[in-house]
């Protein structure tokens, strides 16, 4: 324990040194992740520590601070179904939020990471305070302070005086600088069905200055929700997920801002969805925009089913159309998604000519499950090397697919349910008929 405390104190010194020496700190290894339930085992920190990142980026749901109520179908308070009349999620008190942050901050593997890496981050809904919440959430200013305390943000930091937790960092000497921009997709976000604002006016103004500011070799934009993928366009009306795609005007504005800024070397990292994947969009800027999604450190879609049935999740992931997902030989599964605990890993080879980026989603053992190798020259508008066929593949948005393709998941599910219903009706009829025959025979006897 004494060694652990000493390591944490050393981490504080390291944070100060990095904060004052960013301009000369050559950054070559970055890890990132999201969706870490403080009450669940977190063995994945061993793999993250083995990767030995210089910077770790939290992308939201750093804790699960709200309270999830059980599924209740009947009764006075029904939390699920078309007859739902009570919320499934409710906020915690600030004292309970603090307790959960303290639990997360003292996970041994995370303590070891803090001792040797700079930790930065933003939030998503569950650490913001309420599932799917936006600007209407009343406890957002209090919870902002709790998040910044969790991240060891200095007391005189501008983040403690502004509305929202957005920020940026720049690492490295001239010519080899990495800029990390972290967005706040909660504090100013309009309702999901509004197609309103995600960032709010003040954050949009700030982001424009950041992108038009001094150039950097690489610019990483961290968003708690997915930027490129819009799976809600193909999973509806069964279920919907949060993403920039549900705010098409805002997403177009984001793409246009990147394009107009003429900034090269931009890509996104994101979390939220409880699976890992890599997506790209070739028709937003003068070069492909990638979005590497890592989710989650503890939460994962396959964990909702027993091990023998997890093939169902993998089949549905493969069957759901995704026009933006990168599918290559680096994928462990055919769907090129990964529904078990994972983290993101970025390696920059500054000695290569041109500079090379290896970006991966890795499993609990630190092994890659999907990834891309990108030459930095590919992320420059003047050196466009994409072929026409690839352009077409990654330029068709999910919402523009033919309806029979776009809704094939819903068609499959409803068809299976209809067949099961018919089978049930048939079974009832067969049992009823058998009972009548048996009764008739008994009367005859």
TrEMBL record:
CDD domains: MPP_PhoD. The keyword Disulfide bond does not apply. Residues 31-283 form the PhoD-like phosphatase metallophosphatase domain. Keywords: Membrane, Signal, Transmembrane, Transmembrane helix. SUPFAM superfamilies: Metallo-dependent phosphatases. The chain crosses the membrane at residues 411-439. It comes from the Eukaryota. InterPro entries: Metallo-depent_PP-like, PhoD-like_MPP, PhoD-like_sf. Residues 1-21 form the signal peptide. The keyword Metal-binding does not apply. This is PhoD-like phosphatase metallophosphatase domain-containing protein. It comes from Gossypium barbadense.
């Amino acid at each position: 324990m004494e060694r652990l405390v000493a390591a944490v104190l050393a981490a504080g010194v390291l944070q100060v040194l990095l904060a004052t020496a960013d301009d000369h700190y050559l950054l070559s290894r970055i890890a990132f992740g999201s969706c870490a339930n403080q009450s669940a085992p977190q063995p994945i920190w061993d793999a993250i520590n083995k990767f030995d990142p210089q910077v770790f980026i939290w992308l939201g749901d750093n804790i699960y601070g709200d309270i999830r109520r059980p599924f209740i179908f009947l009764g006075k308070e029904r939390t699920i179904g078309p007859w739902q009349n009570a919320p499934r999620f409710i906020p915690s008190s600030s004292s309970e939020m603090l307790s959960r942050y303290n639990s997360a901050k003292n996970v041994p593997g995370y303590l070891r990471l803090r001792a040797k890496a700079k930790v930065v981050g933003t939030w998503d809904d569950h650490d913001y305070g309420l599932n799917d919440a936006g600007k209407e959430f009343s406890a957002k200013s209090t919870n902002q302070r709790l998040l910044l305390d969790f991240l060891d943000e200095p007391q005189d930091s501008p983040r403690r005086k502004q509305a929202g937790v957005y920020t940026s960092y720049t690492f490295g000497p001239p010519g080899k600088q990495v800029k990390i921009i972290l967005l706040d997709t909660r504090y100013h976000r309009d309702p999901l069905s509004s197609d309103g604002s995600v960032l709010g006016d003040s954050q949009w103004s700030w982001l424009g200055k950041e992108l038009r500011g001094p150039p950097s070799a690489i610019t990483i934009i961290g968003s708690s929700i997915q930027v490129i993928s819009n799976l809600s366009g193909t999973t509806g009306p069964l279920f919907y997920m949060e993403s920039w795609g549900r705010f098409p005007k805002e997403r177009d504005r984001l793409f246009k801002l990147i394009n107009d800024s003429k900034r090269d070397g931009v890509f996104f990292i994101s979390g939220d969805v409880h699976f890992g994947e890599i997506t790209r969009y070739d028709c937003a800027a003068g070069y492909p925009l990638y979005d590497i999604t890592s989710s989650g450190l503890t939460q994962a879609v396959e964990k909702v089913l027993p091990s023998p049935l997890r093939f169902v999740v993998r089949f549905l992931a493969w069957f759901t159309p995704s026009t933006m997902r990168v599918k290559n030989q680096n994928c462990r599964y055919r769907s090129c998604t990964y529904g078990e605990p994972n983290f993101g890993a970025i390696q920059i080879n500054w000695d290569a000519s041109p500079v090379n980026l290896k970006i991966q989603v890795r499993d609990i053992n630190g092994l890659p499950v999907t990834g891309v190798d990108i030459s930095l020259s590919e992320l420059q508008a003047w050196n466009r090397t994409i072929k026409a066929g690839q352009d077409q593949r990654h330029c068709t948005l999910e919402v523009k697919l033919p309806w029979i393709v776009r809704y094939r998941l819903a068609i499959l599910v409803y068809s299976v349910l209809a067949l099961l219903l018919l089978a049930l009706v048939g079974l009832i009829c067969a049992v009823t008929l058998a009972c009548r025959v048996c009764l008739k025979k008994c009367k005859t006897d």
